[in-house]
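Structure ticket #2291
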Amino acid sequence: MKDEFDVDVEWLPFELHPEIPPEGMELPYHIRAQFGGMSKRLEQLALDAGMQMTIPNRIPNSRRSLEESEYAREQGKHEAFHHTVFQKFYGEGLDMSDWEVLRSAAEEIGLDPDDLQQKTDSGQYKAVVDTYFSQAKAIGITGVPTYILDNNYAIVGAQPYEIFRQAMERLGYPSHPTK
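Resolution: structure written out below.
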C-alpha cells in the first residue's frame, strides 16, 4: 500500500483472546478441524505473497508481545519488531509469549532485550495496551486483523490486496507509480 498510495500504517494492539492463560493452551481438535479450510486459504495467501506460514497447534497468550511492541514503538522500531515477531510466530511456528523468542526478536532489530524485558515485567506498558483495547472495543472491533482506512472504513480479516486498492480508490486516494 505504501508503494502505491500515500498512506501511513500504524499497527495497534488488540488481544483477540484475553481469556487464554499466560502459558498459552493447546488448540482443541474441533477448532483445528473447523479452521482447516481457512488455514489452507491463509497458507496460500502467504505463499502468493512470497512468505511461509505455519499454522500453530497452540494458542499463545499475546499480551506480553503486545506490551513489548509498545517498548519497540518508544524506541522507533515498532514496525520492525512487529514484523519480526509475526515472522517468528507465523513463519517459524514459535511461541510469541516465550521470553526467549521475544528477546531474540528484540536483539535482531537492535533493541536491548534486557531493558525490554525489565520494562515489560515492571508493567510499564500495561495501561497503554489496555487503553488501545478499550478504544478498539468502543468502535466495535472484534477480530484481527482489522484495518481502519481514513478513520471511517474497516476491512476485516486477511483480504486480497485488490480489496484494499478498491477501498483506497473509493476513499479518493490517488495511486502513484510503484517504486
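Closing remark: The chain has a mean pLDDT of 88.
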